Amino acid sequence: xxxxxxxxxxxxxxxxxxxxxxxxxxxxxxxxxxxxxxxxxxxxxxxxxxxxxxxxxxxxxxxxxxxxxxxxxxxxxxxxxxxxxxxxxxxxxxxxxxxxxxxxxxxxxxxxxxxxxxxxxxxxxxxxxxxxxxxxxxxxxxxxxxxxxxxxxxxxxxxxxxxxxxxxxxxxxxxxxxxxxxxxxxxxxxxxxxxxxxxxxxxxxxxxxxxxxxxxxxxxxx
Length: 222
Hints:
This protein is mainly beta. It has a single domain (about 5-25, about 35-220), classed as outer membrane lipoprotein receptor (LolB), chain A. The chain contains four helices and ten strands; from the N terminus they run αααββββαββββββ. The protein has helices at about 5-20, 50-55, 70-75, 130-135; strands at about 80-90, 90-100, 105-115, 125-130, 145-155, 155-170, 175-185, 195-200, 200-215, 215-220. Strands 1, 2, 3, 4, 5, 6, 7, 8, 9 and 10 form a ten-stranded antiparallel sheet that branches. The two termini are about 25 Å apart.
């Protein structure tokens, strides 16, 4: 089964938003990247925000976000990176997200594929986001979402945090769609675990397997 069109549309929408517009930083230190392929699978890290259809008719009530913009800003310093493994019926891939420029307002990032031997492929075009924008990726309508405290075993270790379950519009074939996202307290930013369920079947999964921040490396195995 190919990557679900609902997931693919969300990923492409997020990428288009981030590859245009002004640089949100007075610190511009991004080297020339040349022509590079956009990495659909690693962009899945940023598809957590509700789709326009999912927010229609919502009265403005949202669940609290797991992190503040300031928490994400302080954790995602220049040089920060994380590796994400994404899995569909087509197979698994690993991609690296790297923060290449940072400011108090936002950051610039690129994506690179990670080969089995650990080598990195060509970088994607730079995309840009404000810290408030990254925070709001986890802003879900209370009418269609719920959250609970959990302890989860991940490639990065045992982590405590918030598990969000978000109802999505039905798939094109009428199957119910649900997203699950896990945000650990100690690792602000993108969800460490994210999957989309179509009925009882897992259609898409993305999970962080390694990352480097201000506190050094956190690395998990395969």
